[in-house]
Specification:
- With 291 residues, this protein is an alpha/beta fold.
- It has a single domain (19-289), classed as Alpha-Beta Barrel (TIM Barrel), CATH 3.20.20.20.
- It has 11 helices and 10 strands.
- Strands 3-4-5-6-7-8-9-10 form an 8-stranded parallel beta barrel, surrounded by 5 helices. A two-stranded antiparallel sheet has the order 1-2.
- The longest helix has 20 residues, at 264-283.
């Protein structure tokens, strides 16, 4: 089943045309990747505008850290205070391709009212009242996860067949959410690298992204994640960008449509080159077959 076109604001995402980039805007004081650099509303808005200038197609604004080292749950009002003004501010600057990274229906609803087009839900619509809100959005991201994020946490989980388990999970969620009016063609699937997956599982996902193209686009989030430390011994998250490009390129080669990244400039440059190479290969496939 081929993936359909999907819109985020006025942006039309066409599978196979090129790789799309979702830039991450964290508004948390305990972000694992930047240490809270963009915690204030004004700094977060400025950072988002900078990511657009660097080539981001979509901005994903989140107010809750998912790192195992985070400070714990965030009160609903605090999450609203962190993300809604940023989304509203970016919308006032004319940015329409906006996503809110939340698993709370109230936050998602308020974000949509203030300019967000997508909801990026790490709980895949399992939260209270979230199915109804997801159905109102122009698009949504559903993620597969087990337990906490991080390679160390992921090593505590075992899978008989991780590819099948993730595919079955997505089919179950899509069927359930369809009952609330969510259309498959409005969904992006994220297999959740690092979320309850060990190193081997994460690498397996990266190399098999086409397995999740179940009539929906797929998104790969590997930016600065801890499995890269296992491979490179780079302990500081913000210094893993170069390493992450290798995983992103592998993911694109295996079928990913969207990359969720912190360093937009590096990802933009890499994808422009890789997309051009893949396009040239398709256009001249007969030449490669004769060699």
């Amino acid at each position: 089943m081929s993936a359909p076109n999907i819109f985020c604001g006025s942006l039309k995402l066409v599978p196979g045309e090129r790789t799309y980039i979702m830039g991450i805007v964290n508004t948390t004081p305990d972000s694992f990747s930047d240490g809270g650099l963009y915690y204030s509303t004004s700094k977060a808005i400025d950072h988002g505008l900078k990511l657009i200038d660097q080539g981001a197609d979509i901005l994903d604004i989140g107010g809750v850290s998912t790192a195992p080292t985070s400070r714990g749950p965030v009160e609903l009002e605090e999450e609203l205070k962190r993300v809604v003004p940023v989304i509203s501010g970016l919308a006032q600057h004319g940015i329409r391709a906006l996503s809110v990274d939340t698993s709370h229906a109230v936050v998602a609803q308020r974000a949509l009212e203030h300019g967000a087009s997508w909801i990026n839900d790490q709980e895949a619509g399992r939260g209270e009242n979230m199915p109804q809100v997801l159905a109102q959005a122009q698009g949504c991201v559903l993620m597969h996860r087990r337990g906490q994020s991080g390679v160390q946490a992921g090593e505590n989980y075992t899978y008989k067949n991780i590819q099948q388990e993730i595919s079955d999970f997505f089919e179950e969620r899509l069927a359930c959410l369809a009952l609330w009016g969510l259309k498959r063609e409005c969904v992006v699937l994220d297999p959740g690298v690092g979320f309850g997956k060990g190193l081997a599982d994460s690498l397996s996902i990266i190399n098999n992204m086409a397995n999740y193209n179940q009539g929906a686009l797929t998104m790969l989030g590997v930016s600065r994640k801890s499995f890269l430390e296992r491979l490179t011994c780079i302990t500081e998250a913000a210094k893993r960008d170069d390493a992450g490009l290798g995983a992103m390129a592998a993911g694109i080669m295996s079928g990913a449509h969207i990359l969720r990244v912190h360093n937009v400039k590096a990802a933009y440059d890499m994808t422009r080159v890789l997309d051009a190479c893949l396009k040239a290969r398709v256009e001249h496939e007969d030449l490669y077959q004769t060699r």
